[in-house]
Structure formats: structure tokens, C-alpha cells
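Example for tutorial group B:
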């Protein structure tokens, strides 16, 4: 059984240019095996140009990390297709396809690729189809329970392609739940999407939405809706490893990311469970993994009914 690896997902929020460069300068020294780079949420976020994302990924690769370029999740314009094509044409770096347009473009070029949690893979047949197109690593949708993942991986082995594909789990961070052509952050400030004034810059970890009972319900991140609570599936890493999962994806947050990664890395090496409660606002959640409502927090080892 291979050792569990840590990946650093793409930054999902709109951070200023200098903040991004500082973040990745520090990330290059963190004990992560893979780093995803690129704008995946909104094409209006142009802190870095496409060429700069590619160059930054090359720098991460020189630091010994597997650097993967992540594409936009919701394609709405020809200019966005053009930027996606430039990422796919980078000539050396692996690409994470977050939209089926990227999948087909990479397949046409006979290039291997990974997929993020926005690609809807819910069964082994879909996984097999994408594997034949060039998929070498997939990240299941965040709502996929352990029971379904187990079945998919078992069927992948039975169909004879299980060893040709890696599995990565979105294990930490506000879960990306949905995308819309509308910008919810702009709407919350009575602004149209086309004149949003980049309100996202004011919310480096998204805009919290609460119920009338003061319970955090969602996190708004531009056109992306996220979970209100922070997902923490890292305590389930041993179980995931036994299922055949190779990567734990930690989604960047603006504070304490180094401590989160270092605690996780140390725990994996020691065969222990990291305590990340000091770095999570609220209780956290993990319900989807156990076949329950996503906002719930279940005890580790709970059996999916």
C-alpha cells in the first residue's frame, strides 16, 4: 500500500497578486506532493495572467512539487475558451480539467489529465470513459459518499483499469457545491455581475451566509456556492488509504495553511490523526462521506447505512 500523499488545491478565492505570489513562495517549502494552480471560479479575477500561472507552475515544479494547471469550471465566453486552450498547450505540465470542454481538448491533443470535483463522475462507467480519454487522476464530487466510492473503485478493478488511475479526495476546506452564471457576491452588494467592483477581494475566505437562527448556512464565493462549514475528512485518511485513495486535497484558506499542512503531514508519517480544531471556524463537517447531510459532523469510523 503506497503512502498517502498531500495535494494543495487551487486557490478558490480572489486574492491580490502580491498575496498569491507570497502564498506560493511559502507553499513551495511545505510538505505537499502536488500543487494545483490557476483560476477555477471566475474569469474576471485577473490577479495573474494565464502566462503567469504557467510560469508559476513551472517554478513549483522546479521546487520538487508536481505542479498541475487547473482550468476554469464554468466556461461562458470565447475568451475563456482561449485561455483554457493556452493552459492545455503549455507543453510540459499536467492539466486539471474542471469542464468537459477541457477534457475533450486535452483528449484531442492526446494529453493525460486530471479532473477536479466539478466533473460529475458518479459511477465506474463514467470513470472508465474518461480514463480512456486520458484521465489519470480523478477527484470525486464532494457529495459522493464512502459507500459509492468503494463500489466505483471495486468495479474499476473488475473492469481492469483500476491500476491505471489515481483517486484524490477533497478532504479539507469549504466544499464547492454549485456554480451559477450569476455572481452572488455582487448581488449581495446590490451590484450587477458586469460591474461587480471586485467585491470578492474583500472576502479572502468567502462571504458567510447565516440563517435567521445565526447558523452558518453557506459561503458565497462569486459565482460559486460553498458549504458554510469547513469540511475535514483528514481523520478518515487510513480508511481512504485502505480503499485505494492516493491523495488528500487540502483547499487553501487565507490563514494557518502552513500549520494545517504541517500537522497533517506529521500525522500521516506517524500513522496518527491530526487535530486541526484550532484552525477550523465552528465544528466543521463531514456528513457526505458517511451518507448523511453534508453539514453534519459524524464521529470518525461511523458506518454508512
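The residue assignment follows.
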Amino acid at each position: 500500500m503506497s503512502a498517502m500523499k498531500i495535494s494543495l488545491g487551487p486557490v478558490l478565492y480572489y486574492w491580490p497578486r502580491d498575496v498569491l505570489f507570497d502564498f506560493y513562495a511559502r507553499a513551495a517549502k511545505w510538505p505537499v506532493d502536488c500543487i494545483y494552480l490557476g483560476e477555477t471560479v471566475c474569469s474576471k479575477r485577473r490577479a495573474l495572467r494565464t502566462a503567469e500561472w504557467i510560469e508559476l507552475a513551472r517554478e513549483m515544479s522546479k521546487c520538487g512539487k508536481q505542479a498541475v494547471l487547473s482550468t476554469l469550471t464554468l466556461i461562458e465566453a470565447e475568451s475563456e475558451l482561449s485561455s483554457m486552450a493556452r493552459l492545455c498547450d503549455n507543453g510540459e505540465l499536467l492539466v486539471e480539467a474542471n469542464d468537459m470542454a477541457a477534457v475533450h481538448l486535452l483528449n484531442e491533443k492526446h494529453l493525460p489529465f486530471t479532473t477536479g470535483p466539478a466533473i460529475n463522475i458518479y459511477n465506474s462507467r463514467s470513470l472508465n470513459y474518461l480514463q480512456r480519454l486520458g484521465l489519470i487522476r480523478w477527484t470525486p464530487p464532494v457529495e459522493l459518499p464512502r459507500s459509492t466510492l468503494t463500489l466505483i473503485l471495486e468495479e474499476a478493478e473488475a473492469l481492469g483499469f483500476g491500476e491505471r488511475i489515481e483517486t484524490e479526495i477533497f478532504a479539507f476546506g469549504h466544499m464547492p457545491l454549485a456554480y451559477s452564471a450569476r455572481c452572488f457576491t455582487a448581488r449581495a452588494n446590490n451590484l450587477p455581475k458586469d460591474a461587480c467592483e471586485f467585491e470578492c477581494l474583500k472576502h479572502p475566505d468567502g462571504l458567510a451566509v447565516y440563517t435567521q437562527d445565526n447558523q452558518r448556512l453557506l459561503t458565497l464565493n462569486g459565482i460559486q456556492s460553498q458549504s458554510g462549514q469547513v469540511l475535514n475528512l483528514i481523520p478518515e485518511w487510513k480508511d481512504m488509504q485502505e480503499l485505494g485513495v492516493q491523495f488528500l486535497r487540502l483547499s487553501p484558506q487565507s490563514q494557518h495553511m502552513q500549520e494545517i499542512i504541517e500537522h497533517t503531514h506529521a500525522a500521516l508519517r506517524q500513522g496518527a490523526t491530526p487535530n486541526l480544531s484550532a484552525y477550523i471556524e465552528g465544528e466543521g463537517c463531514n456528513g457526505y462521506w458517511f451518507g448523511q447531510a453534508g453539514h453534519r459532523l459524524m464521529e470518525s469510523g461511523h458506518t454508512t447505512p
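The longest strand covers residues 166-179. Compare this with the pattern of hydrophobic and polar residues in the output above.
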